[in-house]
Design goal:
Layout lengths: L1 E7 L5 H16 L3 E7 L10 H6 L18 H6 L2 E4 L2 H10 L7 E3 H6 L13 H22 L1
Helix pairs in contact: 1-6
Length: 149
């Protein structure tokens, strides 16, 4: 099974939402990939934000209630076949720390749509902000699964 790693800052909203959405669709399509998530500045063991958990309620099978944050490691970099950052800044940071990963690190927007762009951080926003982020991620992840087929 090939591994995709989604990366954000704190690993409590965007990257776990993307991983949950991806795993839901990948399992249904049988493409042979599974996803995990990590954060560049994650406080180990923090739960997903309440608003992220609630935003995922609209996507059966994408439950974040048991998610616990974790920090990006060298092992993650080595084991991942594809690393998708939520922001260009995340991508730049990963490449500054792990330049050998340059062939497999992209932003999600870059990889899926072929353009520069970031998935806006909903952290601190209200439920509507998180739902908007979840919708954006769901659309991008759907295109990602199609691309990987």
């Amino acid at each position: 099974m090939k591994k995709i790693l989604f990366v954000c800052t704190g690993n409590t909203c965007r990257s776990p939402m993307a991983a949950a959405l991806f795993n839901r669709l990948a399992a249904a399509s049988g493409i042979g990939y599974e996803a995990a998530s990590a954060g560049l500045a994650a406080a180990e063991g923090s739960p997903a934000s309440v608003n992220a958990i609630e935003a995922m309620e609209g996507y059966p099978g994408a439950d974040l209630s048991c998610h616990r944050s974790r920090r990006l490691t060298y092992t993650d970099i080595k084991e991942a076949h594809l690393i998708l950052a939520m922001e260009r800044l995340h991508r730049q940071y990963i490449l500054s720390m792990y330049p050998e990963a340059y062939q497999k690190v992209f932003t999600l927007i870059e990889y899926v749509y072929g353009t520069d762009g970031d998935v806006t951080d909903p952290y601190g926003g209200n439920e509507a902000v998180y739902r908007h982020c979840a919708e954006m991620l769901a659309q991008a992840v759907e295109k990602l699964v199609e691309k990987l087929k």
